[in-house]
Amino acid sequence: MAFVNVKPTDADVRFARAVARHTNHLTETVSRGLTWGADEKILLALAAAGWVVTRTRRESVRRAGDHALLVAAAASVLPHLMKSVFDQTHPDRKTVLGHLNGVSFSGKRKDAFPSGHALHMGALASAAGPLPAGLRRAIRALAVGLCVTRIVVLAHWASDVVAGFALGAVLERMLRPLTGYPAKEPR
């Protein structure tokens, strides 16, 4: 049992109802597939593989590998800890219309806050800061797009996704001093 019960905002409820009314089977199917791109198990596996590859590279690349693995691990643990403190019902349990359109149930009933997928994507978007502008923009656009899938499949309220994304960005920045990952973004 959690200590804090989080209620969706009126805007969250209106937005979820609009999503339920206006999405179709194809949109839901594509979103369900894409949302795997922000799954913690996949991201942890990629970070671990990347870490192994960076072991034979120059110091700055090894530091980036260390940072990616630490951030992926921390971003995997933090939402689980927070969900033990916060209770919030997923929108798919509140939006019957969504099930008429084919949206499936997501996760444990009261584990909506925060979105773990969005937390990972916020960390990824933040970590892209030191990269060249084109690559940085592409990674950030991908991160935001993957977050939107969590709203489209009614796995999370919009505010859960925004909060998760922001928490991920803060987490990534807080871990930079531990790994020595570049703190300055290019001009």
UniProtKB/TrEMBL annotation:
Enumerate the spans annotated as Phosphatidic acid phosphatase type 2/haloperoxidase domain.
Answer: 69-172
InterPro entries linked: PAP2/HPO, PAP2/HPO_sf
Q: What is this protein called?
A: Phosphatase PAP2 family protein
Query: Which source organism does the UniProt entry give?
Result: Bradyrhizobium barranii subsp. barranii
Its taxonomic path starts at: Bacteria, Pseudomonadati, Pseudomonadota, Alphaproteobacteria, Hyphomicrobiales
